[in-house]
Amino acid sequence: MSASVTGPLRRFWRVLGSQRRWMMLGVLVSLISTLAGIALMAIAGHFIASMALAGATGAVLNYYTPAALIRAMALLRTGGRYVERLVNHEATLRVLSRLRLWLFDRLLPLAPARTGFLGSADLFSRLRADVDRLEHAYLGIGIPIVVALLALPLVLAVQAAYAWPVAVLTAVAATAAAVLLPRWLIVRSRAPSEAMVRDEAALRAEVGDLVRGAAELRLYGADAVREARIHALTDAQQMRLARLDALQERGQSLIPLLAQAVAAGTLLLGAAAARADRLAGPDVVMLVLLGLAAFEVLAVLPEAFTRWGATRAAAARVFDLVDAEPAVEDPAAPAEPPSQPDISLRGVRLRYAEDAPWALDGVDLELPFGSRVAVTGASGAGKSSLAAALLRFQPFEGGRMMWGGRSITDYATDDVRAAIAVVEQRTHLFDATLIENLRVARPDATRAQIEAAVHAAQLSECVAALPDGYDTWLGEGGAHLSGGEARRVAIARALLADRPILLLDEPTEGLDAATAQSLMGALATLAEGRTVLLITHRLEGLSYLVDRRVRMERGRIVADEAVASVSVASCSDRFSTTH
Amino acid sequence: MTHADTDEPPAVRAKASGVASVKADAAPGATDWLAQQQGTVRRWLLSAMGLGAAGTVLLCVQAGLLAWALNAILLQKAHVRDVLPAAAAFVLLALVRAACSVQARRFGFEAGRRVVADVRMRVLEQFRARGPAWLARQSSADLITRTVDGVDALAPYYARYLPQKAAAVLLPLIVLVAAFPADWVAGLVMLVTAPLVPLFMVLLGGVAERASQRRWVTLLRLGNQFFDTLQGLVTLRLFGAGARRRVLLAERSEAYRRETMSVLRVAFLSSLVLEFFAMVSIAVVAVLVGFRLMWGDVAFTHGMFVLLLAPEFFLPLRALGALRHARMDAVSAAGDLAALLESTPPAAGTASAASSKVVAPAHPPRIEIEDVRFEYAPGRAGLDGITMDIPAGRTTVVVGASGSGKSSLLRLLMGFHEPSRGTVQVEGHALDALDADTWRARIAWLPQRPHLFVGTLRDNVRMARPDADDVALERAARAAGLDAVLRELPHGWETPLGENGYGLSGGQAQRVALARAWLRDAPLLLLDEPTQHLDEASARAVQEAIATLRRGRTVVQVAHRLDAARAADQVVVMAAGRVIEAGAPAQLIADRGAFFRLLQNEEAA
């Protein structure tokens, strides 16, 4: 195989670093127990044949050594298997840990500019499947192939020492079993495997439609049609699975078949050699049993080779994802962060690809420290791009962006972000307890600080209602917070982070009016004494947070106007006097 | 004749499927449930087992042939042509055995396939029985996982695990029956070790299996947490928390590794015992047979025969161990599926069995709701005794905080909720006396976030009226403002939508829904805050399109912005599942009641 074929797997091997020692140890132990198993049968055959011969001819025989060897091999095999399983488990868990940390290290600097795939359910589940494949590469591919490659020559050498035609016969059959058969299997299963992946994606999409669009389907009387489509897809999927399964079984039953053909061949070759007195009778018995037992190591090869292709593809895909350059690199010698980050944009342009339209097309914006500005505009106007440029998630191409009087590119990107607290539109709640989720923003936060932030974010009632209070498990395995509550967690995080600049990204989007309204107090507390940059497609209901509003269209700022300064408190006062 | 046991340790095997359910211990009913599904495919399972048994009988014959031929070579220096027939028969039998195993696998697969098709059908039936209102409250990702991956996980259990389980009992018996007449001593060795294996498997295996199942669940959770961390990368970067998270990840997997290994050292003892007996029985058989051969107590043919059979005796049991994960996956999936399938669903508007139902009126209907109560679950009321009169051809706007029952009201009108009390009358007919299909055909609905289905834009609009021609489609598109969207789309009407399709913006999707409503041309129009998630410009455009659409129809509109309410013929204010105020908007403002207070609050914001 050429370098480009093995490339991704070789690279994967390098990624594993020091864990490779465990893998090699695992291979060694596996090899020993495999050879012990093969030797057990061969020696046992030889032993009983010799004993039978001795019984028939009355010859004297040293039976202690072979009998002891048989017991030793049995114990070696048994103990070897136990140690082998432990070592291989150890190795697999170490590989798993190593691989995940490596992936995390590589992906972190790429987020979010180069990690769009994390947001797509389809691509993300493919990444999961790929990583899963790599985690099992050692057990599924490494062990069987390496052990077969090491054990087989030893067996062939023993056979050749007694009768070289038997070794040739075994070598030919083993090549057929280990090389030709897997290749045939891979070729034949490629099309149905690919079709099956498509079927599964289609099935998922159809079931998704049935679940998410249930109301529409019921209303339009189309649910029966959809169900029929799912059943048809299930049938198609199962048909392909059946074909793959039959293929695999045919491949798998071919190996014992070859083993038995070799046994029959050895029998005939042995008969001829024994008759010509070139080979002792017990040796014939030993060779027949040796051949049968040796094929044991080949039985797992077709599956291992099938996985080889899939794993190589998985490795290539994963490397493809992590090999992206970070969108924004840190400068070689980052400047000290300024004490007062005034922000100033002059003619800033940004686009996501060489041939993409400008997402920011010459933005001029002054945000001196303490200013409170809303950026509004329809979706696609450039609001999010502006935030991404400021957070140093996306590079800008033209113009200047100043940060405390110096070009923002002089600072480490982490230092820039360390001055900005963001209330994300879709904040991520980790699969962890509430308190761990809050401490993401400030790991050393004291209980009192956390409680203060929770109180200010108007989250106290919610915490009180949770089954285990702060220790309630959120996310995947635990309680799910409502949209409003999740937003409050985001606000509490921003409060805990306590940074001079506050970036609010659609803080009330997706919430109903009453919930949005109830966040007013929390947001107002959060905004106090900070630079506020509010990104929203409509200012309605949020104007109390800002005193200036800029409107964006097609990547430019088209209007910049003052917003009547109203505090939350004076808001309701004014209302009650006018009505 | 031997196969390697490819046991992939269960503790390192976590499925990659997205939202794999993580439960510490599968529901006790899960195994019962799996057994119940067995009934329909018993025939296939039995066929697979029968072929497996036939294969083992043939194996015994092969062993006999091989032993005979070796005997001839060893003791009679037989000529090649003397052993040739035996060698040929041996290979022929190998072919037949291979065919048997391929066919057995096919039968097993058929059993799995049938269970998958049957269970998936029942899951979908269950979805339909529970209705859209129930589905809307579930996590769709979870339901998709259950319906696709969960059901798929059942197949290997029936296709592979069950036949192998039967084989583990049946095949050693066949071997034993064959071995005993040949050499009763070796037979005795097998007979004595055989019951020890299941005994130790039960003693140690139970402990081991529980331990490895717990490990497996922990591993699954660890995997979920890792991928959850990847999805939160942006949040981590925003808070500069990446390095800390890395430490946490490393610590967790290290702790997991330590714990797992200490558990496995004990858990693997069960397979050590199995391996030990398998190997020791081979060794003991070999040594015993050897000495008895020397003493002349047994013929070489017979001795060789039992030695060849000895490894086969334990093989099915070892192969079963390799399939344990198939069982674990199936049990975990079965827990979820049994819970989904076995609880009786609340009747949800599917009770349209009678054919004597009244055909729903075709003109804009008047709807009277009288003291209707509806519960999501016992004690959790969605609607708590509402009474209202929705006049024909007029617009009724329903306002209230989220959770006050506004959307439940719309679902009630669509027949997705079955009230536990009270009546809904349409033009004097009880809603449940109307033919459900014709009644739904009288409704057009604009949800907050319309669902776009996998298919073309044309399919997506035309689903509202499958018999509509292109002229009607174009007309609906114009009226809904979809024509402007169409011009921007690369493939116009043929643009693929839905998952992996072209992503329409919220405003564009809402125009698709509007076009559906126009095409539907229904006398009752239900609006569920259709402009909630749109930017100002899109909201305005959609509102204008709705203004024309509503003419001459009965409209029930759920609104969060009250400017819509001012122009309504009637305003209904809801709170906590009840109607707290209803009347003309001007009247309600004059009364300075709940509606007035809502108006005040909104202007304050």
TrEMBL record, chain A:
One of its GO terms (molecular function) is ATP hydrolysis activity. It is a multi-pass membrane protein. One of its GO terms (biological process) is cell redox homeostasis. Residues 25-310 form the ABC transmembrane type-1 domain. Coiled coil: none annotated. It is found in: Cell membrane. The chain crosses the membrane at residues 21-41, 47-65, 136-156, 162-186, 284-302. Residues 345-579 form the ABC transporter domain. One of its GO terms (cellular component) is plasma membrane. Its main location: membrane. InterPro entries: AAA+_ATPase (IPR003593), ABC1_TM_dom (IPR011527), ABC1_TM_sf (IPR036640), ABC_CydC/D (IPR014223), ABC_transporter-like_ATP-bd (IPR003439), ABC_transporter-like_CS (IPR017871), P-loop_NTPase (IPR027417), Type_1_exporter (IPR039421). Keywords: ATP-binding, Membrane, Nucleotide-binding, Transmembrane, Transmembrane helix. Pfam families: ABC_tran. This is Thiol reductant ABC exporter subunit CydC. It comes from Oleiagrimonas citrea. The gene is cydC.
